[in-house]
Structures are given as structure tokens and as C-alpha cells.
Specification:
Chain A is built from eleven helices and no strands. Classes of the chains: A mainly alpha (266), B mainly alpha (193).
């Protein structure tokens, strides 16, 4: 089988399938006539097509077939005219209600949109402790080590006014490692601490009372000491001595008690 | 309402199909009966070639006619050819049948296309050889088996087969040639002679 045979045989099946004959004068027809292999291939394809054509597909009986189809058609359920959903009053009302609910939920509630900043308290709240004048924390008198370990929560927005010097955000270092007063700090103290950034004052004596209640006598003694250094009064001095005594600093406690006795004229 | 004469002699044209389909859509059962008589052979032949089982093929063809009748109100004769639309239904029914069979009976079914009364050419061919040929045809892929059977065994023209399968006529010729070559390789030598 040469190259011409391959070329001719590729056409033989297509010719048999299309039902056409080769042109007798074409080169392919001349080759098929001369080549025994290609001639045998052509006869084989022709016999194959003849064999296929010798079979007959059975056909169903026309009457039975039609009768069966009409039986099945007649057995079909009658088409039920279903009204469109918008023609049902109940569904229409439900759809209208759903739309109204969606619109109501999508609307912007009145007053919402701008969250007003929390207002700073007008005055300092005293948290327990001895009665007396409240010392204000000014930037100059602010201790190097503050008692807060975290910055005050929710600072009020600043409004800069012409002619008013820019206020510095206080840097509040940690007093002692492991101390986290924010976790248990009273709410009133938090409000007061927040107001400290806006110019309000927190009394050192309040801090002392707070830490004394917490059992942190060393911090309480420090706070009372700061309060006593700002304003020397017997009450603060006594609290200073009490906290120092509780913290174990007996020498400082004796000094404070002595100062109280001196002021009382004793 | 369209009026169609059922005994009309020349209704093997597309325009008649359109008129018949329009009349059937409007509820004319006699028009649908004409369509059924016209396409029963093709629907059954296709179903038999695809499914390989006479009972299943008959059921599939009947169900296709029932489904087409139920869907006639949605058929627009001006936009689609009824024959192509109907044969698509037939193909889908056969596909569903093959899918059900693959679940129910995974084994390959023998093709039962042997006629009870063979023609004179078939008499010349030994019965055993015919059986071997049909087994070889049954083993062909569906794309080659269906055109071969519709053309040679059912006597449909290539154009009719192309319309029934929804493909160009050249595609049908290519599939016929491919089927013949596959069978030729299967038998080898002198083939069936």
C-alpha cells in the first residue's frame, strides 16, 4: 500500500456514505481500477452498506401507536388555570406588607447619624476619702508617674478656640508593673479621669482613697503625699500617715503623724 | 381557527408542517393526527436506534408525542420548525430513557432491530452474518450508530436525518463514513462478503 492507496481509501468511505460515485476519468477511479487492494476495499465497503441496507427497522402498528398516544393524551390532567400571584388578595397584601416593612427597616432613624460626644462633667466628683478641698491636676503639678496605666477612655473631642493655647495630651506612664487599675476602677473615677484631659481636676486625695480601698497602700501613700504637698492640711497628712503605716513605711508614718500633731498645736 | 384537510395529498413540506402545527396548537386534533402519522416513523426509528429496545423505543416515541401535544400551546410555528422542535423532544426522551437504564440496568442491551420478515437482500446474507453485523452496529458509539441505522435500515435520507438530529448534512455524511470505517476495521479482510 503506497501513499496513493492511503489517499484513495480515505475517500472511499466518504463516497460510500454520501452515495456518490467516483468520476470514471478521475485519478482516484483509475487507481481503484488498477489497484487490487483498493478495489477490494471498495467492494468491502459496498457489501457493508448493502448488509446494513438489508436490515429493516421494525415499525410500530400505525393504528395501535396512534391509539396509545391518544389514550395517553386523554389521560393527561386537565390544565388548571392558575391565577397569577398578584391576582390573589392574600398574597398581594403579604407582598405589600413585606415591601412596607423593608422600606421601614431601610429608613434612617431620626437623630441617628451623628453621635454626640460625651460631655465632660462640670465638676469633679469626689470618691470617698476625707472631706476637704479638691486639688486640681495641672500640667505643672502632674506627677511623673501617674496612677493610671491606660489613657482615659472616650476623650471628649477638642474644640480649638482662637486665642486658647493648644492643650497637651497628658502622657500617663505606668506606675508599677502589674498594676491595672482600669480593670476595677470605679465608674465615677473613670468619668473624672476622662475629664482630666479637658481641664477638669482629679484630687490626689481621691486617688489615695481609691487605692486605699483597693488595698494598694503604697500607691495610696504616694497619692496622699502628693495631695499633702499641694495643700498641707491635717486631714491629708493623717491619711498620708495612715497609708504609709499600712504600707509598712513606719518612718514616714511617724513623720506624718508628728506633722499632724504640730498643726493641731499638740 | 385553521382548517386543514387531512387527506391533502401534498403535505410533505415545511409550510404544511407549520400550518398543521398552528392548527394543532389551536386544538385541531386531526391536524395533530396528521403530524403524528408523518413523524411516527422517524421518532420510532430514532428511539430504536438510540435505545436498542423495541418496547422502550415505542414508549419513548409515544411519550414524545404526548409531551409535544401538551406543550403545543407554547409552540410558535412562526419562530421554530415543528420537526426540529419535536425531534428535540424525542432526543430528550431517549436521553432520559438511557439515563434511567444506566441506573436500573447498567449492562449493555443487545440491539433488537432484526425484522421478522427480512427482505430479499437479507435472504442472500447468511443469518449469522447479519447477526454479527448488528452486534457490531450496536457496539458503535451513538453518534455513528443512529445515522447508520436511520439511513440504511430505516431508509431516511441524509437531509431528514440532519433535520432530526439538528446538525448539518455534512456532519451526517461524516458520521456515516466514520461508522462504515469502524465497521470495516471491525470485520477486516473481505468483510461480510
Amino acid at each position: 500500500m503506497n501513499l496513493v492507496c492511503i489517499c484513495v481509501r480515505s475517500r472511499l468511505a466518504a463516497l460510500a456514505a454520501s452515495g456518490t460515485e467516483m468520476e470514471p476519468t478521475s485519478w482516484a477511479a483509475r487507481h481503484v481500477a488498477a489497484c487490487p487492494d483498493c478495489s477490494r476495499e471498495r467492494r468491502a465497503l459496498a457489501s457493508l452498506a448493502g448488509g446494513l441496507a438489508s436490515t429493516r427497522l421494525p415499525e410500530p402498528d400505525e393504528q395501535e401507536f396512534a391509539a396509545a398516544v391518544w389514550r395517553k393524551i386523554d389521560a393527561l390532567p386537565a390544565p388548571v388555570h392558575r391565577a397569577a400571584w398578584w391576582q390573589s388578595p392574600g398574597l398581594l397584601a403579604a407582598a405589600a406588607g413585606a415591601c412596607a416593612l423593608a422600606l421601614w427597616m431601610a429608613r434612617e432613624p431620626a437623630g441617628v447619624g451623628v453621635i454626640a460626644p460625651p460631655r465632660a462633667p462640670a465638676s469633679t466628683t469626689r470618691v470617698g476619702g476625707p472631706a476637704g478641698p479638691v486639688a486640681s491636676i495641672s500640667p505643672a503639678s502632674r506627677p511623673k508617674a501617674d496612677l493610671l496605666t491606660t489613657p482615659p477612655a472616650a476623650p471628649a473631642p477638642r474644640v480649638r478656640k482662637p486665642g486658647v493655647a493648644k492643650e497637651r495630651t497628658p502622657v500617663i506612664p505606668k506606675l508599677r508593673p502589674g498594676l491595672n487599675p482600669a480593670a476595677a476602677r470605679p465608674r465615677r473615677m473613670l468619668a473624672s479621669a476622662g475629664s482630666a484631659t479637658t481641664g477638669s481636676t482629679v484630687a490626689w486625695s481621691d486617688w489615695g482613697s481609691y487605692y486605699e480601698q483597693k488595698g494598694d497602700y503604697r500607691s495610696a501613700a504616694y497619692a496622699y503625699g502628693m495631695a499633702h504637698s499641694e495643700k498641707r492640711d491635717p486631714t491629708t497628712a493623717f491619711a498620708y500617715g495612715r497609708a504609709s503605716e499600712a504600707s509598712g513605711d513606719l518612718a514616714s508614718a511617724m513623720d506624718r503623724y508628728a506633722a499632724v500633731l504640730e498643726q493641731d498645736g499638740g | 381557527m385553521h382548517t386543514i384537510a387531512v387527506t391533502r395529498p401534498h403535505w410533505q413540506t415545511e409550510s404544511d408542517d407549520r400550518a398543521l402545527a398552528a392548527a394543532a396548537r389551536d386544538g385541531d386534533r386531526s391536524a395533530y393526527a396528521v403530524l403524528m402519522a408523518r413523524y411516527r416513523g422517524m421518532a420510532f426509528a430514532y428511539s430504536l436506534a438510540a435505545l436498542g429496545n423495541r418496547e422502550e423505543a415505542e414508549d419513548a416515541a409515544q411519550d414524545a408525542f404526548v409531551q409535544a401535544y401538551a406543550a403545543m400551546p407554547r409552540f410558535d410555528p412562526d419562530r421554530a420548525e415543528w420537526a426540529a422542535w419535536f425531534m428535540r423532544i424525542v432526543r430528550n426522551r431517549c436521553r432520559d430513557g438511557l439515563r434511567r437504564r444506566s441506573v436500573r440496568r447498567p449492562a449493555e442491551m443487545p440491539l433488537e432491530i432484526m425484522d421478522e420478515a427480512p427482505g430479499p437482500e437479507a435472504v442472500a446474507m447468511a443469518d449469522s452474518r447479519r447477526r454479527v453485523l448488528m452486534q457490531a452496529v450496536a457496539a458503535l458509539p451513538e453518534a455513528q450508530r443512529v445515522p447508520l441505522l436511520l439511513h440504511y435500515a430505516a431508509g431516511k435520507t441524509r437531509g431528514e436525518i440532519a433535520r432530526a438530529l439538528g446538525v448539518p448534512e455534512s456532519t451526517i455524511i461524516g458520521r456515516l463514513a466514520g461508522g462504515l470505517k469502524t465497521l470495516r476495521r471491525r470485520f477486516g479482510g473481505e468483510g461480510l462478503i
